[in-house]
Amino acid sequence: MNRVDRLFRKLRAEKRCGLIAYVTCGDPDPSATAGIVAELEAAGADAIELGVPFSDPIADGPVIQAASQRALAKGTTTDDLFRIAREIRTKSEIPLIAFSYLNPILRYGRERFAEAAEAAGIDGVLLTDLPPEAADGAFRERGLATIFLLAPTSSDKRIKAIERASDPFVYYVSTTGVTGTRSELDPALLARLDEVRSKMRKPIAVGFGISKREHYEALKDRCDAIVVGSAIVRAIGEGRSAGEVVRAILSPA
After folding, report:
1. Cα–Cα dist 66/46, whole Å
2. Burial category of 135 from C-beta neighbours within 10 Å (exposed 0-12, middle 13-18, buried 19 and up)
3. Which residues on neighbouring strands pair with residue 170, listed in sequence order?
4. How far apart, in whole angstroms, are the C-alpha atoms of residue 150 and residue 229?
5. Catalytic residue among 5, 39, 49, 80
6. Contacts with 10 (C-beta within 8 Å, 6 or more apart), sequence order
7. Contact criterion met (CB below 8 Å) for 5 and 147
8. What is the pTM of this model?
9. Tens-digit pLDDT profile for residues 118-175
């Protein structure tokens, strides 16, 4: 059982909605990412998604696209993901999930990536554009969690397929479209999330567009964790505290 499994078992035992924080590796500089992760953990983040910067992040909105461009301009590579993870592991046991598109993994080599991820202390892999039908055993053989996205438009057949493939949790995309902060949650989200949850046994983390305390309050009893990305990445890009974003979401109203 790796750290991601243990986290979701702990969250369910505590009847608490966790918070997963996303950062783009190498933004604003590869040497800064481990320190930002430490700040997010101190603020209350339960797990970290380490985004691999990519030149064509089609599922991401302008905030994370810009972060990828800044990171790439600083020379960030896939090897930096592993270096950053190793640095984090010298001080922390927080669960780490590599978040990427498939292309960088294929260029690096799946087996090679899985081996390097395991050695660096990464716990799971989420590839946004990898369908479960195309998954292989390279990650599971290395003890890495394999996590897949579930869309609001997914059919019952698709829900079952994603639940079978995704372990230990399913990442539910809160709305159609790209990532990015939103002032209001999709009005159909809560009802649809309740419907999806009634058809699944595995934990669900909800992401895309979650950026405020009000969003967390609306979701905390309907899912096992929320994912906050663009709000954190925007703060980093503006030179503000990433930890303050997490504290603002988790602090009682």
Report:
1. 25
2. middle
3. 204
4. 17
5. 49
6. none
7. no
8. 0.94
9. 999 999 999 999 988 888 889 999 999 999 999 888 999 999 999 999 999 999 998 6
Which residues are CB-neighbours of 30 under 8 A, at least 6 positions away? Answer: 71, 74, 75, 76, 80, 83, 84
Report the pLDDT value the prediction gives residue 35, as an integer from 0 to 100: 98
Among candidates 76, 80, 103, 88, which has minimal Cα distance to 38? Answer: 88
Q: Of 73, 86, 94, nearest to 29 (Cα)?
A: 73
Q: Which residues does 128 contact at the CB level (< 8 Å), separation at least 6? A: 59, 99, 100, 101, 102, 149
CATH number of 3-250: 3.20.20.70
Q: What is the DSSP letter of 27?
A: S
Using the predicted structure, report yes or no on whether residue 37 has a pLDDT greater than 60: yes
Mean pLDDT of the chain: 92
Return the pLDDT at 237: 95
Per the listing, tokens 């995704």 go with 166
Q: What is the pLDDT of residues 12-34, one digit of tens each?
A: 999 999 999 999 999 999 999 99
Going from the C-alpha of 69 to that of each of 65, 77, 106, the distances in angstroms are 6, 12, 20
Average pLDDT over residues 179-206: 81
133 catalytic per annotation: no
Residue from 39, 60, 80, 224 carrying the catalytic annotation:
60
pLDDT band at 177 (very low <50, low <70, confident <90, very high): very low
Q: Is 60 a catalytic residue?
A: yes
Domain ranges of the chain: 3-250
Q: How far apart are CA 43 and CA 20, in angstroms?
A: 12
